Amino acid sequence: MDLALQGLRVFVSAGASGIGLAIVESFLTEGAEIATCDVDEASLNALAQKYPNIHTYLCDVSDSGAIQGVIHSAAAQMGGLDCLVNNAGIAGPTAKIEEIDDAAWQRCLDICLNGQFYCVKAALSYLRESSNPSIVNLSSAAGKYGFALRTPYAAAKWGVIGLTKSLSIELGENNIRVNAILPGLVAGERQRRVMEAKSQQLGVPFAEIEAAAFSFSSMKDYVTAQHLADQILFLASPRGKMISGQALSIDGDTKMLL
Description:
CATH topology: Rossmann fold
Number of strands: 7
Helix content: 40-55%
Distance between the termini: 37 Å
Order of helices and strands: EHEHEHEHEHEHHHE
Number of helices: 8
Oligomer: single chain
Largest sheet: 7 strands, parallel
CATH superfamily: NAD(P)-binding Rossmann-like Domain
Strand content: 5-15%
Structural class: alpha/beta
CATH class: Alpha Beta
CATH architecture: 3-Layer(aba) Sandwich
């Protein structure tokens, strides 16, 4: 299937590793032009060396002034912007609510929710000029279900869905479609660290935590970064023209989070 993404101008936050890297590489395979930012300078440099045509920027999305400058520079270098992928996020603390300090709570919301707001504000004037404009926000299954011991993360990801649905209505008159992706348990080091933290917090072996998590999923397997990237590419393509305001679960039919 030809997704007609050749020449699409895309900005992906946190694109130097993990899910972001899979998104970046998938767009590149389809012939899109990519700009990305990240806080990991070593990974960003490695990405730039591997793909010299990518526009890379060292930036923390929670810094509104910095991300505004980065997106303005990226749009100038690419001659505009067609798609914004708000991928940046952190796991936040794993702890009982009374044990979470204010700074840890705020940092999680600053990255996972406020950063998306800042990116949208910076990108909007360019997206309005596009003939195929879209925004894809990374939420989580945690934005759909309660998630004990992960309240800052869940609160932020619920917020992302509210942001997405509100923007889809507000920006519809500009033909900008806005959707959220809700991954389940994503294969990778970050998911393992989260499960290890929960294992330690509850005093339960890691294997039991993992098995219990999969017991609430019909597919009983990890989502991969590529599964997410494939869906995002479709949403950004002309074939996704009438999909907007959706919170799309890619979670193997997960019923709840442990």
